[in-house]
Amino acid sequence: MSQNTEKLQIIEREIRKCEKCSLCKTALQAVPGEGSSTAKVVFIGEAPGATEDKTGRPFVGRAGNLLEKLLEKINLSREEVWIGNIIKHRPPKNRDPLPEEIKACRGYLENQLAVIKPSLIVTLGRFAMNHFYPEGKITKDHGKLIKLHNFNVFPVYHPAAALRNRSFAEALAKDFLNIPNVLTELSKNEKSTNNTMMAKPLL
Ligand code: URA
C-alpha cells in the first residue's frame, strides 16, 4: 500500500469516529471520500445524500450517476480521480450544512487534500466553491479557473442542480468538456516551473 493511501486511511478512521458536530447523531455513517490517493484532479461536493449515507460512498445516487457519465465523456474513471465532500455526514433531510458544521469538518478535507496534492480541484455546486473561494458566485464563476495561493479551483454546477434544471445541465456538460484543457495548461505551467527551479543552480 502506498504511503499516500495509508495517510488517507488514517484520516478516514478519524472521520468515521468524528463527533465534532451533531450530524453524526442523525447520519447512518460517515462518507470520508474515495479514489486515487495521488489524483491529479479531485471533485468536491457538498454533503452526502441518502444513498451515500446508506453506502458510506460519495456520489453514488442519481447525482453520482450523472457525475460518472460526465467523467466518462472526458475519459476519466472514478478510480483515477478522488471524490469527496466538504461535509462528511449527511445533514437531516438533505438540508443545507450549517456554518458551524462546515467549520467543524474543515480540517478533514484540508488534511485529505494535503496528502493528495491535486493539480486541480473541481468544486461541484455553490457550497463547495464558496468553501475555497468565499467571494465566488456560481452563476458568474462556473467554468473559470480560479488560481488561489494554495489551490487551482474550477467551479461547476452541482450535478443534482443539473438534474433539476436544463440550462444548468448544459452549462455543467460544457464546463466538464473543458477540464482536460485546464489540466493540460496546468501541467505545462508545472513543468515550466520545475524546469526553472532545476535550471537555477546552473546559472
Ligand atoms: N451530493 C453531494 O454533494 N455529495 C454527495 O456525495 C452526493 C450528493
Write up this protein.
The protein is an alpha/beta fold and 203 residues long. The protein has a single domain, classed as Uracil-DNA Glycosylase, subunit E. Helix content is 52%, strand content 11%. The chain has a six-stranded mixed β-sheet. Helix 1 packs antiparallel against helix 5. The chain starts with a helix and ends with a helix. The chain binds uracil (URA). Residues 45-49, 52, 58-59, 61, 63-64, 85, 160 line the site of uracil (URA). Belongs to the uracil-DNA glycosylase (UDG) superfamily. Type 4 (UDGa) family. Its EC number is 3.2.2.27. It comes from candidate division WWE3 bacterium. It catalyses: Hydrolyzes single-stranded DNA or mismatched double-stranded DNA and polynucleotides, releasing free uracil. This is Type-4 uracil-DNA glycosylase.
Write the layout of secondary structure elements.
Elements (H helix, E strand, L loop, with lengths): L2 H14 L6 H4 L7 E2 L5 E5 L4 H6 L6 H12 L8 E4 L13 H18 L3 E5 L1 H7 L5 H4 L4 E2 L4 E5 L2 H6 L1 H34 L4
Parallel strand pairs: 2-3, 2-4, 4-6
Antiparallel strand pairs: 1-3, 5-6
Helix pairs in contact: 1-5
The site of uracil (URA) has 13 residues, from α4.
Organism: candidate division WWE3 bacterium
GO molecular function: 4 iron, 4 sulfur cluster binding; metal ion binding; uracil DNA N-glycosylase activity
Pfam families: UDG
